[in-house]
């Protein structure tokens, strides 16, 4: 396989029909509420290699930074992808009395029926169901009674579904990563600006209790001037990736035959970017990545998979451990790690250091001057009363998975949509947090040479603005 740049996966037919130049889209003037027909074309996929993609000029539309949602009394949601992640998220939307799940989509009918049963059990009308193949999401996106589309499908379809949602006048939230190619990231930025619809990375880790406490402490100056941070996705997924039932097919494992870089940077990058106000006063400007040999999956296969299993046809190239260093415009350094192929207790690392001290997670510990001395870690929980985010004070025992952060994310997002608030993060954050996917691959291929991270904000990053460290709405 040619590894000169990340290849376009071919598993989903929809990418072959929508990832190139787009058809006509609906756009409005800045601030307008309803999409209307237009002859403007969607951005075409660039042919510039990801490592050298130039910053395209903004088309005839304003930035989406600081743009609020349209206020509404009820938020109508459509979910695309009802596997492990999508099925887990339905209950969180149903827990909010101002949200209605009006449509669900998955090519596997049994999954759609399971989702429908949950909606009905919650006392809502049965949702419209779309199960007619892998492109039926287009019909869901075309509905006039959907305000927000949640995308929880395999990665290779994220871009196409997000694109379809915005072209149909819908705000869209996408599970990690938002896309797999640099040209797709630019396309989503342009489409968000043109359609005046938000496209967000549904990064739940930004809403973790520890992450939000560290964020507020950083913004309060408790770490002094920020210098460095680190985030990771170190999670042993070998058994799940080889399981015949956990994922719908081997799609996730096969990405390890396609890219050498960090396949899943968002969980680590998003929180640290928030600490440092990336895209809100600082900017990620370059990334240098290094990868180990790819041995873990092949070794696991040899020990656990029978002869003749289809996985024996696969050749794994994805580094077992990828380590990247991101430099910011202010000279700060962010370390990112990715490892899902070797034995390792779960860790997102999640650290932040400045001139007054440091926080490190897994386990949580802190050292700040003048609070601590003698090089002895302090008790991070001692800062809860003062620095826990209002969301965690209002929802001390949230339902749902991942320690409650999933619910906090959904609650806050739906709150912003309902009240007409500016979202905590936007398409520029989605593109920035995902850019390490193609760029780390390019850097590893170039023996660690730095790769430029585009300024997806086109200069807006110099302006301070709010983010996840939000104020409780009145």
Description of the structure:
The protein is 30% helix and 15% strand. The protein is α/β, with parallel strands linked by helices and 474 residues long. It has an 8-stranded mixed sheet with strand order 13-12-11-7-10-9-8-14. The model is unreliable at 1-53 (pLDDT under 50).
Q: How would you summarize what this structure contains?
A:
The chain is an alpha/beta fold and 474 residues long. Helix content is 30%, strand content 15%. The chain is built from 16 helices and 14 strands.
What is the element layout, followed by pairings?
Layout: H1 13-18, E1 75-80, H2 84-94, E2 99-105, H3 109-121, E3 128-130, H4 137-141, E4 148-151, H5 158-167, E5 171-174, H6 182-195, E6 199-201, H7 209-219, E7 226-234, H8 238-242, H9 251-254, H10 266-275, E8 284-291, H11 296-304, E9 322-328, E10 333-339, E11 351-354, E12 357-360, E13 365-368, H12 384-387, H13 390-394, H14 405-419, H15 427-434, H16 436-445, E14 451-452
Parallel strand pairs: 1-2, 1-4, 2-3, 4-5, 5-6, 7-10
Antiparallel strand pairs: 7-11, 8-9, 8-14, 9-10, 11-12, 12-13
Helix pairs in contact: 2-3, 5-6, 6-15, 7-10, 10-15
